[in-house]
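Ticket opened by: R.M.
Priority: normal
Category: complex prediction / small molecule

The reporter submitted a protein together with FE(4)-NI(1)-S(4) cluster and asked that the result be attached to this ticket for the collaborator who will pick it up next week. Submitted input follows.
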Amino acid sequence: MGNFKLTTVEEFEAATNRLLETGAKVGADAWQLRVKNQTPHCKFGEQGVCCRICSMGPCRITPKAPRGICGCDVHGIVARNYLKFTAGGSATHSDHGREICHTLYCSSPDGAYKVKDPEKLMKIAKEWGVETEGKDIYDLAHEVAVLGLEEYGKVFGTQRFLKRAPKHTQEIWEREEIAPRAIDREVSCSLHMTHMGCSSLPEALIRQSLRSGLSDGWGGSMAGTEFSDVLFGTPKPIDTEANLGVMEVENVNIVVHGHDPSLSEMICEYADDPEMIAYAKSKGAKGITVSGVCCTSNEVAMRRGIPMAGNFLQQENVVLTGACEAIVVDVQCIFPALGPLSKCFHTKFITTSPIAQMPDSEFIRFNAETAAENAKAIVKAAIDNFENRKPDLVYIPDMKQKATVGYSLEAIVKTLDGVTNSQVDELGTTKPLIECITSGVIRGAVAMVGCNNPKIRPDSAHIELMKKLIANDVIIVASGCSAQAAAKAGLMDKQAKDLCGAGLKRVCELADIPPVLHMGSCVDISRMMNLVAELAKDSGLNISQLPVVGCAPEWMSEKAVSIGNYVVATGIDTYLGVDPYVSGSDKVAELLTSGIRDWVEAAYTVEKDIDKLGDAMMARIEEKRAALGI
Ligand code: XCC
Ligand code: SF4
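Result attached by the on-call engineer:
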């Protein structure tokens, strides 16, 4: 197996510690230090039993005070908090999707944004019943973009993309009254329900949590993914690298961070511009390196092979290298800490969105209409900053791994064609994958998703679980910061096949894939929804019967809870390594981990012991196989 070796969490931590030493020299703060000041956390908050939605409170529930001033009990308070948390996530993902629809609306043949995948646009247009015959592709793009935008406020009916789900799933959503209507309506309705004096019945609040989640996964996020593909191309397998070592000491380093590819795509475009490269050289650099953090990094890695500097809890590290000329952010998961931190170095912290404005940043407003000039100004500002580097503060850990990324649903279907040598003659379907699963060569699949969280040693849960699963012939699809954890460790290197069980290893060799498939950013979990929908349709099974589970072992954001809700509501059991602030109510905990199974054929498992979490997932996969007699 040559000299392939995974990067261990210990090696990773040693590099981080070395960077923190640089930080200490310049008086920089870091999350590792702030965690100390914030722990132990507030018990009421942790259990979800604090309510401050009206000014008679705040009320917190204890054995001596079992009800708030209005009389709400602990179950109502915990469930209300859970729904609010979900709605925050649905709003965030969906608003990202809306921005993408708007970018599509701004596309033009000679503007900054073009239609790179007209085939996908045609497919969606047909799916939505839009006449395509003889239409100019940009007229069609604008028409479809308006329809996409209307999904947010449609007066009647439910989300258009729900039709992609198998019939059985659609029937469940109808029966349980959780088929999401207008996206904005589900978020508004959630905030209405959680207002003082509205719902305090846990069942009603959790049901709306599922519906709000579905408006994200099968609404806003799906729009985000689909229209990003139309604009920037549907990902295909592509080679890249991951971890801090992708930053290059002699180059101008621009780090893109956030979520919306409308910004990062343009930065990449202009960093590649010969005029800009010449300008960088005139300033004494060898060239320009763009790398990424968080989901926007996944977006440009999947489509352009732009290297991934790291995931969520690595964002401060990129500045601590002392070699980051600019960290350019749009929305979501951006530490406000980057402001003061960048002031300790020469780094420019450039915010670009009215939605995410922060102190100690330079605000260069980025608009779809003026994208080209905005992006150029940002790249130029980074280049101009190169000469301000303080050489004695520069240290880039020599640490990176190869990764093959870009496994959209389309790419997975194409790549797995021909893996089986038997009677499967329907290419362009998921049938070859189904055959690998039914024959037992692959036992099942796990969707590994979500963030890092200081409550868990960063990346360790992602990596340990993945290693365990692939060794047991379970194939992994990954997204978000989980995908980046895998890439940094080396699990997206094709040579990682040697860590797999015999069956999965054979599949990796035949299809020439790594055992952990990078499906994109967190809005791209909608790709996973489309994948399971196709698997169910092609196999004639219900989604809940497939030996497939979801897992977010280190999650932290509201978005992650929204995701969890739509994954479960789609019929996929979901495993969490961090508790979603519901331990204060046995009723709510019971609903989420078991009661909702009666509604949607799936539920949550929360288990903080990562080894046990892995065992539970494998046991579930085997249980589903046994039920199918395979
Ligand atoms: Fe954010 Fe999407 Fe979480 Fe990573 S995984 S920390 S939400 S960047 Ni989405
Ligand atoms: Fe207290 Fe009820 Fe007001 Fe919440 S809504 S703060 S429980 S009085």
